[in-house]
TrEMBL record, chain A:
<dbReference type="GO" id="GO:0016903">
    <property type="term" value="F:oxidoreductase activity, acting on the aldehyde or oxo group of donors"/>
</dbReference>
<keyword id="KW-0560">Oxidoreductase</keyword>
<dbReference type="InterPro" id="IPR012675">
    <property type="entry name" value="Beta-grasp_dom_sf"/>
</dbReference>
<dbReference type="Pfam" id="PF00111">
    <property type="entry name" value="Fer2"/>
</dbReference>
<keyword id="KW-0479">Metal-binding</keyword>
<dbReference type="InterPro" id="IPR002888">
    <property type="entry name" value="2Fe-2S-bd"/>
</dbReference>
<feature type="domain" description="2Fe-2S ferredoxin-type">
    <location>
        <begin position="1"/>
        <end position="77"/>
    </location>
</feature>
<dbReference type="GO" id="GO:0046872">
    <property type="term" value="F:metal ion binding"/>
</dbReference>
<keyword id="KW-0408">Iron</keyword>
From TrEMBL, chain B:
<dbReference type="GO" id="GO:0005506">
    <property type="term" value="F:iron ion binding"/>
</dbReference>
<dbReference type="InterPro" id="IPR046867">
    <property type="entry name" value="AldOxase/xan_DH_MoCoBD2"/>
</dbReference>
<dbReference type="InterPro" id="IPR036856">
    <property type="entry name" value="Ald_Oxase/Xan_DH_a/b_sf"/>
</dbReference>
<dbReference type="GO" id="GO:0016491">
    <property type="term" value="F:oxidoreductase activity"/>
</dbReference>
<dbReference type="InterPro" id="IPR008274">
    <property type="entry name" value="AldOxase/xan_DH_MoCoBD1"/>
</dbReference>
<feature type="domain" description="Aldehyde oxidase/xanthine dehydrogenase a/b hammerhead">
    <location>
        <begin position="38"/>
        <end position="143"/>
    </location>
</feature>
<dbReference type="InterPro" id="IPR037165">
    <property type="entry name" value="AldOxase/xan_DH_Mopterin-bd_sf"/>
</dbReference>
<dbReference type="Pfam" id="PF20256">
    <property type="entry name" value="MoCoBD_2"/>
</dbReference>
<dbReference type="InterPro" id="IPR000674">
    <property type="entry name" value="Ald_Oxase/Xan_DH_a/b"/>
</dbReference>
Amino acid sequence: MSDTITVNGTANPLPDDPRVSLLDFLRHDIGLTGTKKGCDHGQCGACTVIVNGIRINSCLTLAAMHEGDSVTTIEGLGTPDEPSALQRAFLEHDGFQCGYCTPGQICSATAMLEEIAAGWPSDASESLEGHIVTSREEIRERMSGNICRCGAYANIVAAIEEVAAGGQS
Amino acid sequence: MTVHFKQDKPDNSNRLDGMKQGVLGKPLPRIEGLAKVTGTAPYAAEYPVENCAEGVLVTATITRGKVTSIDRTSVLSMPGVIAVVDDEKLCTRAAQGTANEAPMQGPAQICYWGQPIALVIAETFEQARDAAKHLTVEYLEVDGAPLDPGAVDPEEQDDETVHQGDLANAMAEAAHSVDVTYTTKGHASAAMEPHSAIAQWDGNKLTVHASLQMLNYNIAELADALDMEEDNIRLISRFVGGGFGSKLGISEEVVAAALAATQIGRPVRVVQSRQQVFQTVMRRSETTQRLRLAADSNGKLTGFGHEALVSNLPGESFAEPVLQSSHFLYGGENRELMLKVARIHRMTAGSVRAPGEAVGMPALEGAMDVLAEKAGIDPVELRLRNIPEKNPEEDLPFSSHKLAECLKQGAEAFGWECGLRKPRQRREGEWWIGTGMASAARVHNIAEAKARVTLKSDGTALVETDMTDIGTGTYTILAQIAGEMLGLDPEQVLVELGDTRHPRGPGSGGSWGAASTGSAVYIACKAIREELAAKTGASEEELELREGKTATGETLTSLLDGKDLAREGHYEPGEIEDDYTASGFGAFFAEVRVNHYTGETRVDRMLGAFGFGRVLNAKTARSQCIGGITWSIGVALTEALEFDPRDGHLVNCDLAEYHVPVHRDVPDVEVVLVEERDGAASPIQAKGIGELGMCGGAAAIANAIYNACGARIYDYPMTPDRVLAAMPD
């Protein structure tokens, strides 16, 4: 469908104002406030969403650039009645405190695990080729674009590690 | 019905230990957690409000002077622009914690670069942001504003000054002495949620959704700023995306939104940009600290000196209380303590997580490491030898004191190798590896608090208070306290927070929320238990409640007989505050790697052992501790506010240039919760834990850097350039 952005499976018309960021489009235009604005400059990761399977900072891109794209936000990953494995793991491991960076952390982690599965190496990977072990160091490196000022990192890594190992499914 | 309890004596009854539900202290997941992980928890800017206009603050581009004109016509013709607000009631600074009155107002007078001077309102955020950038402002600048804290005559804070005995003589006669000067850079709270407010009027009633920590003070501050009665204002802060002191007092956007809503007769939302949050809210002052330690041949302190210089704007009462725990942490009969504040025109200095100890302890504990080396004593042992029997400056006993246990349990859990230590004993490739430790201390604060508990006729309970949960776990621990007292699963307890319509308390700050409001909930529940006990013919002490039933199997619902039972608990600290020195204590241990060639430091592991009274929830308490330890890593290695020496403006005003720890900076962190009940701290024997976890941790890292590579550094943060400059050949 043209002139629309699909968010969590629902098509939405593009905004009239070309200055509207994808983040403000999600939060304001269509009322999906689960995606958070922490810095508006791509520095904190709170606004991370998944566009066509790839995680991006939604504050660094304009909504108008996403005609025809498919966006998944935290609301699309799970609900209070049916939370995703990562959402459950964050809850159990106390992978958050104030909760403001949390949707971004979870969206980021969801796509990050796919990147590891697809064999994309990182600075922490032992080799540029072949299978990547989902070590804590690998998780930490790949999640470093998502700041948590409460300092829940140790618990976030534990939550992701559990899901990477097949837990909470 | 309100039940008032003023605490003049310690309460060592430990009643909560005798309850039968068995939920208090358990590591339960947060009861509001599912809302947070699914993105359904609403923060201040996220409430759907009809017909809401958007406001963007305009800030000053001079350091000191006045606004001579604001040309409204420069923006009013832009698309969507509704109005420009430059009302004299606009606040130009955020209120200090517990101010209880309006902060500085009058946007035409400029005291620092970046000060808010106006608000532009438009139909959409994009329109308001664009117009705010185009607003034409003319200034009359007053040159020569002092900007360097070292270049002005500072004011002495008399209430911090201690002259006891003769420190100079003690230093001269000491077997071992240390006289060192540390510096720390300024810090930002950098809470993830920017400061935000939505203001809307209904007749003469104002409702503001805001991101605030202390509603009972904030409502008074807002009422004063707007010249309104508190009764006509409602403040709501159900979810707060981090505070760390930056949301203790009302900030500029709260008053701006209210004034704008008045001016245009519509609801208005104002969200500060990240850069504005950095520049207009609060900085932790930079510090310069001289430490003097005199010790006998056994390492026992005979003299203790700690003098600090901090800064703030003219007219601000707050001075970073650097010496707070230095007054009582270690002995030494000859004492000199002094705090001075330099008046300069940088942005407002105020509370950032653990004001005082966050920077005072890293300096003191660095100096203690130097003393340990000079005296040839293991650093853990040196501290154990210097724990005073009572407050060394006042004739006061400690309420409870777990430093020795923390040092011992922490050392054991970490695998600390006691004995004489020499730097540069372990190297792997380019990396020197070493360990370090430090004590932790943070004064215990407590305040008057009220909370209402209603035991519903259906056997569930409701807790209502204006207390906030800023990530601290308040929702959960209050449900656990009520559940424990009333014999209910915490899932049967609904907790409503962050609304000034509820009974008021001190809010979140100074780590006092859990002990203060938790005590109010405890008192309310105790009163409900008395009513229930009367119905059963037993005494309150004899009443056993578990899983909604008495010991004889009678259900709460049958006891209540179709009626709700509500009590308001009112806790007030009395003479316990004056009769004891109360503090949380702890110990940090760190292992680091330092690169010989680049000076980069990586923390490989860290452990903290803490004693802070009763643990109300082992999971959320541990999270508070690891959060504090994470902040310690920032203080030690990366966090530094940088100011332009020409105009005093904060240069690194975003999260790309102000370096908070990120995932890869934080290693495996271990926490030991040391068992403690402190009856003089609160009726629930609990103290605060939100700040203790960062009070000294940076020194454990600094001392580990020295142990690893031999670089003794006296300036925080210990960035690679500083490490390299201090690295022996």
